[in-house]
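Troubleshooting entry. The earlier prediction with nicotinamide-adenine-dinucleotide gave an output that would not parse, so I re-checked the input for stray whitespace and re-submitted. Clean input:
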Amino acid sequence: MKQPVRIGIVGAGIFGLMHFRTFTQMAKRGDVELVGFAELKDEQRKLRQEEFGVPGFASLGEMIEKAKPEAITIVTPDHTHRPVALEAAAAGMHILTEKPMDVTEEGCKEIIAACEKAGVFLQVDFHKRYDPDHQAAHEAVKAGKVGVPLYGQAHMEDRIEVPIEWFPQWAPNSSPAWFLGVHFFDVIRWIVGSEPVQVFATGSRKYLKEQFGVDTFDCVNAKIDFANGCAFSFDVSWIIPRGFEAVVNQGCRIVGTKGLFEIDTQDRGTRACTDETGMRTYNNNFFREFKDKQGATWYGGYGVESIEDFVYNVQHVKEHGLDSRPAGVWAGGFDGLQATRMAVGAHRSIEEKRVITL
Ligand SMILES: NC(=O)c1ccc[n+]([C@@H]2O[C@H](COP(=O)([O-])OP(=O)(O)OC[C@H]3O[C@@H](n4cnc5c(N)ncnc54)[C@H](O)[C@@H]3O)[C@@H](O)[C@H]2O)c1
């Protein structure tokens, strides 16, 4: 029988909750032992400790020393993944990092090299690859059913409370391209099966700064060309109104010589309206809560599945060695690097007002 993987979480903020829920339910199945978590903020550490009954530590170093995880997941702000990943790799830990892997190309390369040197497994949480609709598009393109992919569009937009209320402290160190864009940069690169070669982008950095004192981009609009000739437009922003029916609005379309795919990944057809919330649409493909026959609560959806997959991948490499690549749709270090190169290129293009070769 497989031994449970000893996991530790680093960063117990808003998205950390998804990691806690996933590992807590995997522990019930015997796949995981959630040995602890590291969180800098005392209040937040106390909250999660009470909620999940898992020991909380003030730093990764303390967690490594006292709880001895064999794998960690990084759910800290975008610009802080690099030092955490390097410390974990040096201590011989397998790593799942939230997207973006790092906000610099050098950082990604350093993380990849450190993981190779330490002989540990590295995965980036690009969960849009686990969305069944994206998988259908990927399979269709791969099988040649869409012909040669020629062009397409993707958009991902968050409601304005994300940069101004969720994390105004670190939104200036991020951008809609880092927080949202990399998701679609990765999944479109994966679907069209080709590497990005150049980017031209424009963007606005005015509204959030002037109206709310949060100095970050309002939107980034990037045109990226791939080596196979496919030309893609990406529109990402985090300024859509509070009244919008979900926190995120997103979708994509891909047009090829023999077919097309149009995917509305925000509205999966479930709508609701209450006096309390107003009109809402639900993306149950991403995350859903349900009860089993005994009334116990479980979580599902691609947001959970990609984190679960990390555990299965770690089990695989523990059994077969790092050279035996686990099957599946997961994104590794090179995928993380490529998405980062696209985002870095987009920001450079805005700054230098020219096409950037990737
Ligand atoms: N996959 C997704 O769809 C998705 C969704 C939301 C966020 N994210 C990513 O998850 C990451 C976290 O986002 P969030 O919304 O949870 O942010 P957050 O600010 O709510 O939480 C981050 C937490 O990390 C803690 N932290 C920072 N540095 C730390 C360190 N060195 N050691 C321990 N704790 C540390 C902070 O105190 C904070 O509580 C970001 O990279 C974000 O892009 C991914």
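This one parsed fine. The chain has a mean pLDDT of 97.
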